[in-house]
Amino acid sequence: MIRKHLFNIIFTVIFLGLFSLIINLYYDDVSRALYENDIFPADKGFDILECQNWRNEMRQFHVSDEDKAKQVTVLMYHRVIEEDQIDDIHLETNGDLVSTVMLKSEFDMQMQLLKNEGFTTLTLKELEAFIEGKIDVPKHSIVLTFDDGFKDNALEVAPILREHGFTGVSFVITGVVNLYDAKYEPGKYQYLSVEDIQNTCDVFEFESHTYNFHKRMDDHTAYLIGKPDELVRKDLETSIINLDGNTQAFASPYGAFDENNIQLFQKLGFNMAFTVVPETVRPGTDIYQIPRKEVYPHETIIDFKEKIGLQDGDT
Questions:
Q1: What tens digit of pLDDT does each residue of 131-163 get?
Q2: Do the bridges between strand 101-103 and strand 272-274 make them parallel or antiparallel, or are there none, so unpaired?
Q3: Which residues pair with 251 in a beta bridge?
């Protein structure tokens, strides 16, 4: 009787131990799967090199001295949302739109203005050549950039750009790109899928906005500055792999960078890097500190005209 009772105790202990081990192993696998699905694989590319060939074809504009640009404005956007899809996530506590959310109707109006005024959207290679004094570009030239890689850029922005014959630059946090496509949910922080990228690579140049370093330290220092150099390098190298080896341009999260970062951009082969300093671009501008003007939701169409130089006639 005692022997049987002892056997039952031993059996129970062994069973519980094995069961616990199995559960822990299963939990680890599930956790790992969730983590891997939550971040784009570090060794995988978006497979978009062929459909991005158009960005390498630099146009010769043959403009007269009177019609050539003295400066070029680079605009910066983030999210573009339909008015009837605005949710709490898009609003400040006072009810205003957060600074990174633009109504689709406003964005459409801005693009229509650019079209009506005869603006030309430049590719990054054309902007690079303009900065280096190698080409002249039309007086009304502009570069449209979109940071982070939100899904709404594919669904709301791309069709408008196509309609007007414009192109843009998408600075993507490559690690948050979704391997598989999902239904669009504008009320969430939803990022591009690989399918979105492939479907819009005729209108967007896809460039690096880090792999997974669009973050801040506890003291609010940007990862790009606060993390050890070797970790920053590894992150940017991974983003380059995701972008199929493309190193045309980089945009620093929050516009935060230091001299070490600039040296790293050069070592990794980036041709140019962008900031958030609200100035215009001229021949001779520092190629690794290219300014951009952010477009805010509270601005009027008059503000927009001033931002793109229509008011001062100095484009």
A1: 999 999 999 999 999 999 999 999 999 999 999
A2: unpaired
A3: 274
Residues 139, 69: contact at Cβ < 8 Å?
Answer: yes
Q: Show Cβ contacts of residue 10 under 8 Å, excluding neighbours closer than 6 positions.
A: none
Q: Are 221 and 24 in contact (CB under 8 A)?
A: no
**The CATH number of the domain covering residues in 43-307:** 3.20.20.370
Give the predicted TM-score (pTM) of the model. 0.87
C-alpha count within 13 angstroms, C-beta hemisphere, residue 253: 24
Return the pLDDT at 311. Answer: 74
pLDDT in tens, 100-121: 999 999 999 999 999 999 999 9
145 close to 292: Cβ distance less than 8 angstroms: yes
Percent of the chain with pLDDT over 90: 86
pLDDT at 169 over 50: yes
Q: In angstroms, rounded to a whole number, what is the distance separating the alpha carbons of residues 51 and 57?
A: 13
- CA dihedral (91, 94, 99, 101) in degrees, to 10, reads 20
The DSSP string of 288-310 is TSB--EE--TT--HHHHHHHTTT
